Amino acid sequence: MIEIIDLHKSFGPKKVLDGVNLVIPTGTTMCIIGKSGCGKSVLIKHIVGLLEPDKGDIIADGKSILNMDKKELFEFRRKIGFVFQGSALFDSYNVFENIVLGLYEHGTKDMKVLESEAIRVLQAVAMLPEENGAELKREWEILKNKKPSDLSGGMRKRVGVARALVGHPEYIIYDEPTTGLDPVTSQQIDELIADLTKKIKVTSIVITHDLFSVWQVADTVSMLNEGRVQFTGTPEDFNQSKDPVVLEFLERYKN
Ligand SMILES: Nc1ncnc2c1ncn2[C@@H]1O[C@H](COP(=O)(O)OP(=O)(O)O)[C@@H](O)[C@H]1O
Ligand SMILES: [Mg+2]
Fold it and tell me: How far is the CA of 119 from the centre of ligand 2 (A)?
């Protein structure tokens, strides 16, 4: 379980987070929504340690990250897979290299180990056949050498998800996984997210402003507004909310 407690963050005079409180229960999928620029990415960057709070705390599995030493922090970060906004693959690296780069840099140099991990995560995102056999081997040989520019937007996103699955994370954080994708591809990525949550029992945090995604994947939806959590509840509760801020958001983003 991750608990975010009274998180504050400003950049210069600009207050972005002004006391965010949020609990993400283990084994569930939480969607975080809110207007563009409201601080969604800033919030999750605190969870993965890319930003430090001005005030407040994050409790991971009962332990404050402020009290963790370097090693504990490293162990916690290792439990999190992060799917960046826009996939963030390295254009000059092929699929194999993009997926195992982190493992390699952390000391795994054995080609066999790297290959089997890459195949495992590519199977998990349905880019390779499930069964071990000649077909898998053939498709792997073709796929591994492809560059991001050889892939469609949806496939690049899948590779980004596969990379986040390396090392068996307990948490996966997706930053706007369907932004920029067409509706059909968006739905496929939503299905993948829902599928992974069930299949490998991860806890997922999905940042989105796609209300359709919320319906597809969320157990809980939390809405950020003016630096705080405006609403937390089920998608059904969200849809029936009479809160004017929620209503305005629903009106603006439904389509
Ligand atoms: N490193 C940074 N330095 C200064 N301002 C930042 C930084 N990161 C984000 N911001 C500002 O914080 C606000 C929230 O950004 P962000 O969390 O990226 O929004 P979104 O909800 O669209 O993900 C924006 O106004 C953005 O310009
Ligand atoms: Mg963002």
Answer: 30
